Amino acid sequence: MPxxxxxxxxxxxxxxxxxxLALLLLALNLGAHLMLRRxxxxxxxxxxxxxxxxxxxxxxxxxxxxxxxxxxxxxxxxGTTDLESLASYAGLPSALALQRALADVSARHSHMDVALxxxxxxxxxxxxxxxxxxxxxxxxxxxxAIARARQGATASTPVDPQSRTQRAYHPLAGTDGQVIGxxxxxxSGPTAFPYARIxxxxxxxxxxxxxxxxxxxxxxxxxxxxARAMERAADQSDRLRALxxxxxxxxxxxxxxxxxxxxxxEELRQSARRIADEPQRAAVEGLANDLxxxxxxxxxxxxxxxxxxxxxxxxxxxxxxxxxxxxxxLRLFEKGTPPHVEIVxxxxxxxxxxxxxxxRLRQVMLNLLGNAANALANRPSGRLVVHAERVRDRVRxxxxxxxxxxxxETLAHxxxxxxxxxxxxxxxxxxxxxxxxxxxxxxxxLDSQPGHGTVARIEFPIVDKx
Length: 466
Description:
There is one protein chain. The chain folds into 3 domains: 4-193, 2-Layer Sandwich (Beta-Lactamase), CATH 3.30.450.20; 197-309, Orthogonal Bundle (Helix Hairpins), CATH 1.10.287; 320-461, Heat Shock Protein 90, CATH 3.30.565. It has 466 residues and is of the alpha+beta class. Strand 14 (443-448) and strand 15 form a beta hairpin. It has helices at residues 4-60, 64-72, 83-87, 93-108, 143-150, 195-273, 278-309, 322-334, 358-375, 408-412, 429-439, and strands spanning 74-75, 80-81, 112-117, 123-126, 129-130, 155-156, 165-173, 179-188, 320-321, 341-346, 353-354, 382-391, 394-401, 443-448, 454-461. Helix 6 (195-273) runs antiparallel to helix 7. The radius of gyration is 47 Å and the shape is rod-shaped. The strands form 4 sheets. The protein has a 6-stranded antiparallel sheet, sandwiched between helices.
C-alpha cells in the first residue's frame, strides 16, 4: 500500500489542476464578457449610424409641399406647432400622401417605424395617420436626442437592452431655416443585438461551472482525507504487526521467569509458616504476598500487551447491561477521584444490553475516566459527565470533561500506540481500548477542541436482551 508521502503529490497535483481550471474558467468568463461588451458596442454603433442615415434619407425625401403644412402651423413666437392650424391641413392630398409614404416605408421594413414629430417630440403623423391630440409621454432616453435634433443635428438614443429598441431623430427646417419638425426612425426586434439574453446565459453557465469546480474541490478533499486516514491506519497496522512480533517474543521470555518467580514465592510462603517467631513469620509472609502481587501485576501487564496485538483477544461474551456496568465502574472510580472533580452520572432509565465483556468494559471506562481526570488535574474545579443512552439501534456512552481540550495534532495521534502527552503514560490505553471496542463491533471516537474540553464516545450495537 502506498505511503502517506506518496499520496501528497497526487492530491496536490489534483488540487493544482482544479485551481488552474478555476483560473481558466475565470479568464474565459472575463474574455467572454469583454467580447460580448465589444460586440454590443459595435452593434450599437452600426445600428446608430444606420438609423441616422435612414432618418436623413427619409427627411431628404420630404418635398416642399409636404413640409408646407408644418411650416404654416409653426408658431415662431412660441416655438411650438399649432395643432388646430395643422388639423385644417390634415385632409389635403399632400398630407395624405405623406401619411401613405410613411406607411409604405414602415411596411417595407417590418422592424422599422417612421414618424413625423413636432420639435418638442410630440408625434404628429405616422403609419397609422395623424395624431392631432397627442398624449404619448416622451421617453426619458429620447430627451437628449430630441434636444440635439432641435439644434439641427441628427441624433440617436442608446440601445435599451431590455426593449432592444433604438430611435434616431433628424431635423426638418422651414423656409426661415428654423427647425419646424423632426423625422423619427425607430428600430427594434431582430436587428437589435440580444445583449441581455446572452449575458444572462453566460452568467448562468459561469455559475454552473463554478458550482461544479467547488463540488470537485470538496470531493477531492474528502478523497484525500480518506486516503490519508487509510494510510495512517496502514502505518499503524504495520507498527502493530512489528510490535506484535516483538511483544510475542518478549512475553515468551518474561513468562518463563514469571513462572519460576511464582514457584519461588510459593516456597517462600511455605517456609515462612515454619518460622517460630510470630513477628518474623508475619513479616516474611507479608513480603511474599507483596512479591506475589507484583508478579501478578507484571503478568497482567504482559497479557495487556498480548491483548493489544492479538486478533482473537476478544471472544464472544454474553450480553451485559451497559448502564449497570458503567454505574459500577463509576462507583469504583469515585473512590480515588480528587475532591475538586465532580462526577455526574446521567444514565437512561432502561437497560442498554450490549455484547461486551464486563471486565473489558470496565477496563475501557477506567481508561477513559482516568484520561479525563488527568485533564482536570490542574483545574480548581473540574466536571466529568458520563452519559448513556440509546441512539436508534446503537448504545452510546459518552465521557465528557471540561478540561483544556486537545489541539488538532494531539487529537490526530491520540490512538497511535505509545503516543502520550504525560511523562508517566504508556501510550497504550486508548489504542488498546479502541482495539477492544472495535473487536466487539463497536466504535470509539474522540471529539476535542482547545479550551472546550474533550468528549470520548463509545458506541455498541444493541442486542435483544441481557
